[in-house]
Amino acid sequence: MNDLVPNQEANVSQTNQRGANGDMLTSDVLMHLVTFELLGEEFGVPILDVREIIVMSDITPVPNAPDFVEGVINLRGQIIPIVDLRKRFNLDMTDNNDKTRVVVVEIADNVLGLIVDGDSEVLRIPTDLAKPAPALIAGGIGSTYIKGIAYYKERMIILIDLHKVFSIDEIQKMESVDVPAEGADTPA
Q1: 8 A C-beta contact, residue 33 and residue 122
Q2: 36-48 pLDDT per residue, tens
Q3: For 70-94, what is each residue's pLDDT tens digit?
Q4: Contact 170/27 with Cβ under 8 angstroms?
Q5: Cβ partners under 8 Å of residue 110, min gap 6
Q6: Closest Cα partner for 171 from 127, 76, 106, 119?
Q7: Could you give phi then psi for residue 85, rounded to 5 degrees?
Q8: Which residues, including other chains, have CB under 8 Å from residue 74's CB and lie 6 or more apart?
Q9: CA–CA dist 38, 187 (Å, integer)
């Protein structure tokens, strides 16, 4: 569906072409990515998975939510669970600041907000610049959702498959979080 790392066989004819000056040509097929930063590393997701990017706002905590769920926000009448990707990826925690953003995504017909450190950008990158993750990464934590790494204009972008970041059970739990009623007591 949203393959981030191209089939290597499909690009053989394109990557073996050389330009007039002898340099290797890149593929004419482009990936459209939304990139964002987490703890100084750049990550990319397919643009088709992203609805919008919003400024960080107040989050309402929700009892009994998974530990990586910070709470919910009301976005134009829709209640959206907010996930801290730093927690989900087992990264060091940092304080949110004025660059912190929420990337609103749609995963398996569910809308979620992902807290990121900022610097969101939309890029069009030739597909042949994306390579499978190195074996050390591919066998470690996050190997299920890291699709590859793209090297683009001296930048290294870690490509994420959002459909594999959360299990079906986790998505269902996030969608079924109980939003406390206004003025209701929440458990301590």
Answers
A1: yes
A2: 998 888 999 999 9
A3: 999 999 999 999 999 888 888 788 8
A4: no
A5: 171, 174, 175
A6: 106
A7: -65, -25
A8: 80
A9: 32
Q: What angle do CA 64, 141, 32 make, to 5 degrees?
A: 90
| Nearest of 167, 171, 145, 177 to residue 158 by alpha carbon | 145
Query: Which residue, chain included where needed, has tokens 């000056």?
Result: 21
Parallel/antiparallel/unpaired status of strands 41-46 and 155-160: parallel
Average pLDDT over all residues of the chain? 78
Distant-in-sequence, close-in-space partners of 183: CB < 8 Å, separation ≥ 6: none
Q: Which residue from 109, 103, 157, 98 is spatially nearest to 130, judged by alpha carbons?
A: 157
CA-based diameter of the chain, in Å? 71
- Confirm or reject CATH 3.40.50.1580 for domain 8-175, answering yes or no: no
Picking from 23, 31, 34, 39, the residue whose alpha carbon sits closest to that of residue 131 is: 31
Domains of the chain, by residue range, sit at: 8-175
| pLDDT at res. 54 | 93
What the block records as the tokens of 142 is: 């996050």
